[in-house]
């Protein structure tokens, strides 16, 4: 027995008409094709269904045992769609169950639907495959219609027309700039940069990243995350610390009465910057700890973070001060003071680690899952 199998991989038939699938029998497939043509006359799967009925009628007129059926997948994932088609093919074969060996003639409207051929072949032999191509698709009228449909899509319109519009505006904008004694090269460079940035933005798929970042910010705002505030404060503190570090370099340079080496400049910058960095680190870590506690994921070892930040800050502050001369705003340390600062930083980190490890083993904490 020969089965004419019409394949609609993205389930246009089910989604647009509500007809349950699979559809078996020439009359039912014809009714389904009419219903789909009524719902969406532009859908190419209409031609697939009518072509299947046409092939069925031709073979039946020749005296061959033949049946026609329409199977559909799902819209979206190709893997899920192929599995859905396989399940519907199994149902069709179960309903036929004539005892004869069944082979198939597959009708599709394009290469995408033909990706399901291995699934069908695993269930029965395939004697033939026919791709339905509408004749008008080769005409100029169809080309115009296709371009019109493509440009009607918002995503495609933004991808194609925006860069094209900017490119077409380059020459008139340069002419206008020259009329107002503005350097045309500057306008050309700006427009070229805009087109380049847009191309990189689209080519690298950054729109998804930006959309995800925006969604994360909205989620943080709506859920009342403390980290949003603490991160902003920490960023401000880091900026202030950078300015303070540059001021410290100038102070050391004035005290030394001339230029300073790269090592001294680096030590001066760290000495002025690290205090603000430490406050920023403690602020942001306390915000994160608060959010973890409110979310029920608090662990005692999270409290190590601010102590680690303080320990590192003490060490960097002491080491940088050891290399600097006495000056306003600079704490110049001797070797004994440096040793004590290093010991204090180390002990702070070690004792906090031990203390919170003991607390975690003795006191209950929220389940991190």
Number of domains: 3
Strand arrangement, largest sheet?
A: 2-3-1-4-5
The helix/strand class is alpha/beta
Largest sheet: 5 strands, mixed
Number of strands: 5
Instruction: Pick out the low-confidence regions.
Output: none
Coarse shape = elongated
How much helicity do the residues have?
55-70%
Order of helices and strands: EHEHHEHEHEHHHHHHHH
Q: How widely separated are the two ends? A: 57 Å
Number of helices: 13
Taking all Cα atoms into account, the compactness measure Rg is: 36 Å
Beta fraction: 5-15%
* Mean pLDDT value: 83
Topology:
Layout: E1 2-8, H1 12-17, E2 23-24, H2 26-39, H3 45-61, E3 66-72, H4 78-96, E4 103-108, H5 117-121, E5 126-131, H6 140-152, H7 154-179, H8 184-203, H9 206-223, H10 226-256, H11 262-294, H12 304-322, H13 335-362
Parallel strand pairs: 1-3, 1-4, 4-5
Antiparallel strand pairs: 2-3
């Amino acid at each position: 027995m020969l089965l004419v199998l019409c394949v609609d991989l993205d389930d246009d038939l089910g989604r647009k008409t509500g007809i349950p699938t699979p559809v078996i029998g020439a009359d039912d497939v014809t009714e389904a094709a009419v219903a789909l043509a009524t719902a969406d006359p532009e859908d190419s799967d209409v031609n697939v269904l009518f072509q299947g009925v046409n092939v069925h009628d031709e073979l039946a007129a020749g005296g061959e045992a033949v049946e026609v059926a329409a199977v559909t997948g799902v819209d979206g994932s190709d893997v899920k769609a192929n599995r859905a088609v396989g399940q519907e093919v199994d149902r069709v074969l179960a309903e036929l169950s004539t005892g004869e060996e069944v082979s198939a003639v597959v009708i599709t409207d394009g290469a995408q639907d033909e990706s399901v051929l291995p699934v069908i072949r695993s269930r029965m032999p395939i004697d033939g495959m026919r791709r339905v191509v509408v004749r008008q698709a080769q005409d100029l009228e169809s080309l115009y219609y296709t371009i019109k449909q493509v440009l009607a899509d918002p995503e495609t319109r933004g991808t194609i027309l925006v860069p094209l519009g900017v490119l077409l505006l380059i020459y008139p904008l340069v002419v206008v700039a020259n009329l107002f004694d503005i350097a045309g090269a500057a306008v050309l460079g700006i427009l070229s940069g805009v087109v380049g940035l847009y191309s990189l933005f689209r080519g690298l798929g950054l729109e998804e990243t930006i959309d995800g970042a925006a969604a994360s910010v909205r989620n943080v705002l709506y859920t009342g995350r403390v980290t949003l505030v603490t991160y902003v404060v920490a960023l401000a503190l880091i900026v202030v610390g950078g300015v303070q570090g540059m001021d410290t370099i100038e102070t050391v340079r004035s005290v030394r009465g001339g230029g300073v080496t790269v090592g001294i400049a680096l030590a001066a910058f760290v000495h002025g910057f690290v205090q603000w960095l430490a406050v920023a680190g403690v602020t942001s870590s306390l915000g994160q700890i608060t959010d973890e506690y409110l979310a029920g994921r608090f662990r005692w070892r999270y409290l190590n973070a601010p102590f680690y930040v303080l320990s590192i800050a003490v060490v960097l502050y002491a080491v940088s001060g050891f290399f600097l001369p006495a000056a306003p705003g600079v704490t110049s340390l001797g070797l004994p003071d440096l040793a004590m600062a290093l010991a204090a930083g180390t002990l702070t980190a070690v004792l906090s680690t031990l203390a919170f490890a003991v607390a975690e083993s003795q006191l209950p904490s929220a389940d991190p899952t």
